[in-house]
Write a structure and sequence with these properties.
Jelly Rolls, Immunoglobulin-like, binds beta-D-glucopyranose
């Protein structure tokens, strides 16, 4: 078969999603081709409410053949979609020669409940006169019901105030954790959908049971020991639709007929852990026929249903189970398990002990100088699990509504010698699609990449958090903003950030300012810092760039604009942001003794971000066709650049601030032109050299420092900086045993002592933002922003990175991209690229000459797939169509990297 074929189709980034509430779901597909330079020239999408697509099938949408190269996120435009209905679709494409593909496999999507009218259930909670509504214990609620006859289909729609877990006939429903997830509950509360047909017993007695914990809704949240932030009553809302073979439907719903109780979970808090008494288990509590006469009634809770939305991002799940690597006794005589990896999730164990045996697990991230566990950095988060055995054979357990950030677990009360086999670390996070890999010849850089990925796993647990262990774990906007580009290499983060950005928009203040954390749970005055609030602009723009998702830009546009307008109204001068509270270059090493805030002037940082966000707003306005705004904010941008120059650049071209970060920002945000640019870059080099090739930057400067050096001709210094192994550097932490990214460059000092307990996370992804430089600048896998989402790929590999080889791969929305290089001796390197169908690439290869290069063994001029070739500015430039390429050098005039 020649031409393009469709490998798979997706709806809203997912395979066969159920429970959507978007009225215009979007379709994407991946293509394969056996020829090079394959492009799509047209497509056709058909949708129907049945799966057979025969001649007589009534279509609800048929695009007919549409001339277009679009294969990503094409929005449905057919008949209105109905709640709970399943729809099927298929796609075919034509390549640029007009070859028509086969139809894709038939896929489906299914709508969830679509609005207030679809909700007939009541919110329920245990009867407060019997069960203390403020009890720490997790509530149980249950109901028996009958399934009349053969079931065709069954769907459960459920949400809660607090966290829920569900069981049907004694079996767990689904595999999602910490549902309904964390959103700005005041405005948005997610509903999950489960296909439960397989759990029902036809023609028999059935039962459903729900556990209900405090979670983010009413549990401890934030470092001020706050509780009940969203409300003080836990409640459940559920509708179970049973569609029978005979065409009728029955709905089981939460109402006054349910029964309630408490069970074995005596306490469960996100930060503090769980207390579980297995002796209180009633194994059949979610099975039909349990004698629940002693259970309490439930009360109806009056709570709105108009904030309900269907699940937006991927669910949070257990994604890996890792075995501990050792168990030993510390100098203090404590028995400690080492997971070998700082991870986030829960410890699962199996144990056999007499009833009443109490086992306590305390979770920590690091050991102290003496080799004992260190819990000071957890602040008030207890991270402690207490389990009381029921006896009578092997029992197994893991907590339910709490998660821990840990590498080490102190075991108390364990019967006998613990065997490693009895334990497994369940790694839990939003189940995003892994998309990127980076590897090179430097083992410590590979460990760095691994630490970045683990940091992302641990902190992408439904919202992007600063850290996963201490009494914080909040959606800090600044941290998310600095890390998002790296995040989008490692995993598919579009749905994850789409959800979070909707919360940002919901929590944004009327004046356009953005709270420090999203969902917003801090104080009334906690909003507005530069580089933190800019997440409102940087994050939607990055999602658009990496995934071509225009809808995110459309949805967030008002929020982006409101932030820029807010900043504009803030400064005493409309084009300088020189007032208000700012975190500055947070944790910069040039901070004054005792301060967290680096030495870079805050008004310089604020004005640079003002310019940056305004420039992104202009780009967004252009993409969306808002030409008036584009022009208006383009003008604002010019004014900011002028005001910046006036305020911070001396007439002879020096910068009136003297830190690395101060030099990085104008360079990277394009606020200065030649010759000032060159001068700034040279001074930045001096500042880094003064530190013997080390950084002094904090949260704001670090993500861009190495890019600023590489982009301005000092890649060698960027390489030295990133490959430093002594303090302060990324690799220093690895020498100290880090398996995740630390909050502080010296979280553990060379003598093994710690940075203060007050603020010392060992799993803080912010400095992991270097990952994007590894992918883009070292392996050279980048995009040309004029055609986002890697529709036009840019390969800029750098064999002068002090390495023998580097390779990156990235599963883009068009398919797999690969950029690799390895040195072959004598100053030569070989390059390998993979370009997916329906994209093109530009490869920029430094120091290579046309005549001295072979592409897949052929002369460049004869090689299939090479669209254009030329030399410019010491670079060989190749335009490549889709396909795999191996580019080898015959000889080279300069061998500078050897
Ligand atoms: C968080 C940070 C955050 C910062 C604000 C800290 O407590 O952990 O990562 O950005 O506060 O400066």
């Amino acid at each position: 078969m020649t031409g393009l074929q469709i490998v798979y189709v997706r709806c809203e980034y997912r395979d066969n999603p159920i429970g959507l509430d978007t009225r215009k779901p979007r379709f994407s597909w991946l293509l394969s081709s056996d020829s090079r330079h394959a492009l799509q020239s047209a497509y056709r999408i058909q949708a129907a409410d049945r799966a057979d697509f025969s001649e007589t099938t009534l279509l609800i949408w048929d695009t007919q053949k549409l001339e277009s190269d679009r294969s990503v996120l094409i929005a449905y435009e057919g008949e209105p979609l109905k709640a709970r209905s399943r729809y099927y679709y298929r796609v075919k494409v034509w390549d640029q020669e007009g070859h028509e593909s086969d139809w894709s496999e038939i896929a489906f999507w299914e709508m969830g409940l679509l609005g207030l009218d679809d909700w007939t259930a009541d919110w329920i909670t245990p009867d407060a006169s019997v069960i203390d509504p403020y009890a720490d214990a997790v509530f149980l609620m249950r109901k028996d019901f009958t399934v009349r006859e053969a079931v065709r289909n069954a769907r459960l729609y459920v949400t809660s105030l607090g966290l829920y877990e569900l069981e049907l006939n004694g079996l767990r429903v689904g595999n999602a954790e910490y549902t309904p997830g964390w959103t700005s509950y005041k405005y948005r509360l997610q509903v999950q959908t489960y296909d439960v047909a397989g759990l029902l017993c036809e023609g028999n007695g059935n039962a459903i049971g729900a556990s209900l914990a405090n979670g983010w809704y009413k549990g401890y949240l934030g470092w001020k020991q706050q509780r009940n932030l969203y409300g003080d009553t836990r409640a459940l809302l559920l509708q179970l639709y049973i569609d029978y073979e005979d065409g009728t439907t029955e709905v089981i719903r939460t109402d006054g007929s349910w029964k309630s109780n408490t069970g074995p979970i005596r306490l469960s808090e996100l930060y503090h852990g769980e207390t579980y008494d297995a002796r209180m288990e009633q194994f059949d509590w979610s099975c039909h026929g349990l004698d629940d006469t002693k259970w309490a009634a439930v009360s109806l809770v009056s709570h709105t249903k108009d904030k309900l939305i269907m699940q937006e991002s991927e669910l949070v799940r257990i994604t890996q189970r890792i075995k501990p690597v050792s168990v030993w006794k510390t100098p203090a005589g404590e028995t400690v398990l080492d997971m070998g990896q700082n991870m986030v999730g829960r410890l699962h164990f199996r144990v056999e002990a007499p009833a009443g045996t109490q086992i306590t697990l305390q979770h920590v991230e690091v050991l102290d100088q003496a080799g004992n566990i260190y819990s000071g950095n957890l602040r008030t988060a207890k991270q402690t699990v207490q389990y009381t055995c029921k006896g009578g054979g092997e029992e197994s357990y893991e907590p339910h509504f709490s998660f821990q950030g840990f590498r080490y677990v102190k075991l108390e009360g364990w019967p006998g010698e613990p065997s490693l086999d009895a334990f497994a670390g369940h790694v839990i996070h939003t189940d995003m699609e892994p998309t990127g890999t980076f590897e090179c010849s430097h083992p410590l850089l590979n460990q760095l990449q691994s630490n970045i990925v683990w940091g992302q796993r641990g902190n992408f647990l439904d919202v992007p958090t600063d850290c996963p262990q201490r009494d914080e774990r909040l959606g800090w906007t600044g941290d998310a903003q600095v890390f998002i580009r790296t995040a989008a290499f490692n995993f598919g983060v579009a749905p994850f950030f789409t959800k979070w950005l909707r919360d940002l928009k919901a929590d944004q203040r009327e004046d356009g300012s953005v709270p420090f954390v999203i969902p917003h749970v801090l104080g009334e005055t906690d909003y507005g810092s530069a580089a933190w609030g800019d997440a409102a602009v940087v994050c939607p723009w990055t999602v658009y760039l990496c995934y071509g998702d225009k809808q995110v830009l459309e949805e967030q546009y008002d929020s982006m604009k409101a932030w820029v307008d807010y900043v504009r109204s803030e400064g005493e001068d409309p084009y300088l942001w020189n007032n208000g509270f700012h975190f500055g270059d947070w944790l910069g090493l040039d901070a004054k003794e005792g301060s967290y805030i680096g030495a870079t002037p805050k008004d310089l940082i604020a004005t640079c971000f003002f310019a940056y966000s305004t420039s992104l707003l202009v780009k967004a306005a252009k993409v969306l066709g808002y030409s008036e705004d584009a022009e208006r904010y383009g003008h604002v941008y010019e004014q900011i650049v002028g005001a910046f120059a006036n305020e911070f650049i001396t007439p002879s071209g020096r910068l009136a601030a003297h830190t690395q970060t101060a030099y990085v920002l104008p360079l990277i945000f394009g606020l200065v032109d030649a010759p000032v640019k060159e001068r700034l870059a040279r001074t930045l080099v001096d500042y880094v050299e003064e530190q013997d090739g080390h950084l002094t930057t904090g949260f704001v400067g670090t993500p861009y420092l190495s890019h600023a050096l590489t982009d301005h001709g000092y890649h060698d210094l960027a390489v030295r900086l990133v490959q430093q192994e002594d303090y302060p550097s990324w690799l220093y932490a690895i020498h100290q045993g880090a398996t995740t990214i630390w909050e502080h460059w010296d979280g553990i000092k060379p003598d093994g002592s710690f940075w203060s307990d007050r603020m010392n996370s060992y799993n803080h992804y912010a400095y992991g933002s270097i990952g994007d430089w590894l992918y883009r600048a070292v392996a050279g896998l980048d995009m040309d922003e004029t055609e986002p989402a890697y529709k036009r790929i840019l390969f800029r590999p750098r064999p002068d990175s002090g390495l023998d080889y580097a390779k990156a791969s990235y599963q883009s929305v068009y398919g797999k991209i690969r950029s690799e290089w390895y040195k072959t001796g004598g100053g030569l390197a070989t390059y390998e690229f993979e370009v997916p169908p329906n994209t093109t690439a530009t490869a920029l290869l430094r120091g290579l000459k046309l005549e001295a290069v072979r592409v897949n063994g052929e002369l460049v001029s004869e090689a299939a797939g090479v669209i254009e070739a030329g030399e410019q500015e010491e670079m060989l430039q190749l335009r490549l169509g889709s396909g795999s390429y191996r580019i080898s050098q015959l000889h080279t005039s300069d061998a500078e990297w050897d």
